[in-house]
Amino acid sequence: MPFASIATASHNASLSRRGFGTLVLAGALAASAGQALAQQSITLLNVSYDPTRELYVEFNAAFAKYWKAKTGQDVTIKQSHGGSGKQARSVIDGLDADVVTLALAGDTDAIAKNGGWINKDWQKRLPHNSTPYASTIVLAVREGNPKKIKDWDDLIRPDIKVITPNPKTSGGARWNYLAAWEFAKRKYGSDAKAKEFVAKLYGNVPILDTGARGSTITFAQRNQGDVLIAWENEAYLLEKEFGAKFDVIAPPLSILAEPAVAVVDKNVDKKGTRAVAEEYLKYLYSEEGQDIAGKNFYRPVISEKAKAKYAKQFQPLKTFTIEEAFGGWEKADKEHFADGATFDQIYTKK
Questions:
Q1: For residue 167, how far is the Cα from the chain centroid?
Q2: Which pLDDT score, from 0 to 100, does residue 111 have?
Q3: How remote is the C-alpha of 154 from its chain's centroid?
Q4: DSSP letters along 167-236, please?
Q5: Other CB atoms closer than 10 Å to residue 29's CB: what's the count?
Q6: Could you list the mean pLDDT of each consecutive 10-residue stretch along the chain, which spans 350 residues?
Q7: Contact 115, 284 (CB under 8 A)
Q8: What angle do CA 228, 234, 237 make, to 5 degrees?
Q9: What is the pTM of this model?
Q10: Is the distance from CB of 257 to CB of 93 less than 8 angstroms?
């Protein structure tokens, strides 16, 4: 081949390589730009139980601001609320939750056991057994407490109508039930006596809503019942949310309610949201997260500053844990809330 022909061929090959390289670079830049565009915003779904609506409206706004300042990324957190047991079943059935913030650890365990949506070690991932705030169970009554209700004993009087949700579908209802059961067991000396007491209590329940917020509406808005067995935070929000006047009675003994939180591993790995989902739950333990919990009448568990700030808004009462009284949620569920267990025996006789 003549020298000129060889030179031309070499030049053309060089142009071809450079053109290919330019195309590759352009493609990489386009992909990078597309990825950056995709990373400008992200959406999480927090599947929670009924009375956390107000808490997470405020917390989600605070976290979005924090995450934007830290990463430059916009994050939107969608909320889903309902009875804790029903919410757990929805996640098991495929609801695309990134995190669950349910009423009791037993519901989160159910998600781990049924389909492996959550790794079984979930409760070891965050401080305080993955419980960033605590609560307890109290009694809400009409203003002035016209029926003079002071303790669990009053709830079995024949003149009292009690509003509480269904423990088959509501986590809060299970805390309510177990608080009443342990009170009776300690006072009357046996599980048999406790069963009689709780049967009388549910004999005074005219309506079993599926979730805690439904029972709150029944009591506060529909004006049904003399007393509402409620989450502490729900009881203190009654006046703010419904306008009418109510009194909150803290019985001398109640249960320490510890709502736990967890990342839904299968979903976040599929959606690529693990990093932000994990940071979202960690932020509940931050000073801002703990302050927001206290402001919404949950008991801060980590921040000494928040504990001190909100201590005066909580009435003193003695509490016991689910482990102390019932041997943990797995045992309590089997004995009290499984099909054919104690609650079914009590309520089918009603």
A1: 16
A2: 97
A3: 30
A4: TTT-HHHHHHHHHHHHHHHHHHSSHHHHHHHHHHHHHT-----SSHHHHHHHHHTS---SEEEEEHHHHH
A5: 10
A6: 41 47 45 48 96 96 98 98 94 98 94 96 96 97 97 98 95 96 98 98 96 93 96 88 88 96 98 98 98 96 97 92 95 95 85
A7: no
A8: 110
A9: 0.83
A10: no
Query: Could you tell me which residues come within 8 angstroms of residue 174 by beta carbon, excluding any fewer than 6 positions away?
Result: 103, 104, 106, 167, 332, 336, 337
Give the angle 103-294-124 at the CA atoms, nearest 5°: 45
Structure tokens, 326: 């019932």
Angle formed at CA 230 by CA 88 and CA 106, multiple of 5 degrees? 30
DSSP of 66-95: HHHHHHS-EEEEEEEEE-HHHHHHHHHTT-
Angle at CA 17, nearest 5°, toward 14 and 22?
125
Q: What is the pLDDT of residues 31-61, one digit of tens each?
A: 443 444 346 799 999 999 989 999 999 999 9
Q: Which residue has the tokens 């990093």?
A: 275
